[in-house]
Design goal:
By secondary structure, the chain is of the alpha/beta class. Helices cover 30% and strands 25% of the residues. The chain has a six-stranded parallel β-sheet with strand order 2-1-5-6-7-8, with helices on both faces. The protein binds ribose-5-phosphate. The site of ribose-5-phosphate (R5P) has 15 residues, from β13 and α6.
Length: 305
């Protein structure tokens, strides 16, 4: 039981915060939110304890959720000596460097803001690029939900063991970890993204893998516009697989992405609850709680002076 810990339920992650508070036996602190006509948020939080965990995932509306997180951290740092920001989906982590000359490195700016408002420790899940963490000088930790996703899949796909596919080479470690946990085969496609338009293509090369009548799981960190999954699906169809599923940690699913992904031939999208929604079948509460325990118990290493 963590009696000296408050879990603040940020407006974007109320259910996840509640799950974390149950796992830790810590008090759940609601946020009184009012959004004004001009879009500004105003939030009120009662007094919090010495260790305060703010749970706020920064999925769309991204900037609103990010600002709410910053305001909550600032507010809680008035009461707490130790403020832990849990941001399972880390907005802007795909902008971790200047891809074209003159581009702002958004993740650098976001990291500076998170620190400036009084965060002692940041915990995020399957951040797009670990390089993003290098912009923090505080204790910033990334935890992997791949094991949880693989264990969920193991139960769901008992009879027709699927092949796990990464839409890009950058996801090779992820599919290897998933395939090891599951005990199945993996492949990685080669994806290219046009740096100006964002358009995705999959390199047309022959794969030495028999997929006939096998189920496939396309595994990615994030499904946002669905471009990567849709193109991967189109490419894989040539190999006459049985069903194609998509699994990811963060189901951002902008606009009608879910419909388009399904129209492309994906049977089902399965994700964690870093972003609430119908596809959020895998609960992160236990995983995140475990990490919070680790951080609290090793707190002396990371105390802010
Ligand atoms: C990028 O490389 C990531 O791993 C994902 O593949 C990407 O963020 C997915 O975005 P979208 O669904 O818009 O293609």
């Amino acid at each position: 039981m963590y009696k000296d810990v408050s879990i603040v339920a940020g407006p974007s992650s109320v259910d996840l915060a509640s799950g974390i508070s149950k796992h830790l036996g810590a008090e759940l602190v609601p946020v009184d939110l009012r959004v004004f006509a001009d879009g500004e948020s105003k939030m009120k939080v009662r007094r919090v304890k010495d260790h305060c965990v703010i749970v706020q995932s920064t999925y769309p509306p991204t900037d609103r959720h990010l600002l709410q997180a910053l305001m909550l951290i600032k507010r809680c740092s008035e009461d707490s000596a130790k403020v832990y920001a849990v941001m399972p989906y880390m907005a802007y982590s795909r902008q971790d460097r200047a891809f074209l000359k003159g581009e702002a490195v958004s993740m650098d700016a976001v990291a500076k803001l998170i620190e400036a408002v009084g965060t002692n420790t940041l915990i995020t899940v399957d951040i797009h690029s670990p390089a993003s963490l290098s912009y923090f000088t505080i204790n910033a930790q990334n935890i992997s939900a791949v094991g949880l996703l693989a264990r969920y899949a193991k139960v769901k796909f008992k009879t027709n063991v699927p092949i796990v596919v990464s839409p890009d080479k950058g996801g090779i470690q992820r599919v290897m970890e998933f395939a090891n946990e599951f005990g199945t085969d993996m492949i990685a496609l080669t994806k290219r993204r046009n740096k100006d338009t964002g358009e995705v293509t999959i390199e047309e090369r022959e794969l030495n893998c028999n997929m006939v009548d096998r189920d496939l799981i396309l595994l990615d960190d994030t499904i946002s516009t669905g471009g990567s999954i849709i193109e991967a699906c189109r490419f894989l169809r040539k190999y006459k697989p049985n069903k194609i599923y998509a699994m990811c940690t963060h189901a951002v699913l902008i606009g009608d992405t879910k419909r388009r992904v399904k129209a492309a031939g994906v049977e089902e999208i399965i994700s964690t609850n870093s972003i609430p929604g119908n596809s959020a079948k895998v609960d992160l509460a236990g995983l995140i709680s475990g990490q919070i325990k680790n951080v609290i118990e090793s707190k002396s290493l990371w105390s802010k002076c």
